[in-house]
Design brief:
Length: 127
């Protein structure tokens, strides 16, 4: 039940954004997320609204305008091993499919307890 938020600088065309979202979803499915569990959004911001350090923490080459922040909000309980495997698959796929340099991709995992999800109708499904 991940909720994916991708933040990037505009402009980006619809086909590129769709490819990026499809690539992220394929990586999540590969890590055990059901194929039909797809909830994604894209935030496109101008330069004044998206400030990132070009080299933090220790990059050899600086981030540039193609920098993409991917936030994955999902239920608590996935191991570091699962997260590492997802990163090992996803970052090269984003390079291949979207032309992103690996150092231009930042992924943040955020975890929440099962009882914090209501998918529809005000129902808590996992209590």
């Amino acid at each position: 039940m991940p909720l994916v938020t991708v933040t990037l600088r505009r402009p980006r065309d619809a086909a590129w954004k769709r490819t990026l979202l499809d690539t992220v979803h394929a990586g999540l499915v590969g890590s055990g997320v059901p194929p039909t569990d797809r909830f994604q959004r894209v935030l496109t911001l101008g330069d004044d609204d998206f400030i990132v350090d070009p080299r933090y923490p220790d990059l050899e080459s600086p981030r540039d305008r193609d920098f993409v922040l991917i936030e994955i909000l999902w239920s608590v309980g996935r191991s570091v091993k699962v997260k590492r495997a997802l990163l090992a698959e996803l970052v090269p796929a984003l390079t291949r499919n979207c032309g992103l340099a690996a150092d231009n991709v930042m992924i943040a995992f955020k975890e929440t307890a099962w009882e914090n999800w209501s998918f529809a109708g005000g129902r808590l499904l996992h209590t």
